[in-house]
Design goal:
268 residues, 7-stranded parallel beta sheet, two-stranded parallel ribbon
Amino acid sequence: MDNGKGRLVLITGASAGIGEAFAHVFASRSWNLVITARREDRLLALASKLSADHGVQVTCLAKDLSIPSSVAELVDELNSKGLKADGLVNNAGYAVPGHFARTLWDDQAKFIRVLVTAPCELTHALLPGMIERGWGRILNVASVAGLVPGSAGHTLYGAAKAFMVKFSQSLLVENERYNVLTTALCPGFTYSEFHDVTGTRAKVSRMGKAWWSTAEDVAVAGYDGVMNGKAIVVTGRRSKQVVPLMKVLPDSWALAIMRRRSKAFRNE
């Protein structure tokens, strides 16, 4: 179903990057939206544009998903407004630069909350309604990092994304009989604020254009993938070459490659 008229999607991390691109993609296909992120001013500006451009209803709920109570508050607000989500895009995310031992545990705990705990909790809250209504689409924004061996720096990032891949696959096989489909979207390098926040912009900018995708292309690929029931969607020409290669190489070889290459895109 490409036309989402009458349906509602909740998108986390919608204030910039891939999340903002997802908001435009869903709105252009006539979905109504609930968008959430920390920066309310950006959400309001985005909501105004989406409504003007596509004539859809957009609800803004500013939340910081690193706060343990945030998901419960978000779900309570949806319920109080009588909003039933037919779609969920778990997109909010970031990375903690540096080696694990040199970081603060509080920073890592917040990271786990945003990238693992909150998406699982939000899915757990919204999934029963989708099953009951016999229709739902869940997009978990993972990463190519979740499909290749781990690298030095940003230690929990690949692990969190690998978790989301397995989580998505399990959700798909559990719930596809109810017409509730789940996709793990695994982007490669994407033009967004991500590398500015992690302080790796100078490093990754030296990588060739073939490694890169726009946030818009990633969002369209994710949308099309989940509508068609694809378990995993990889974006980026180079990424689509690297992921199959890593699967056939001996683990020791694949890890050696990541060991050599990680300095090109990670802050160690």
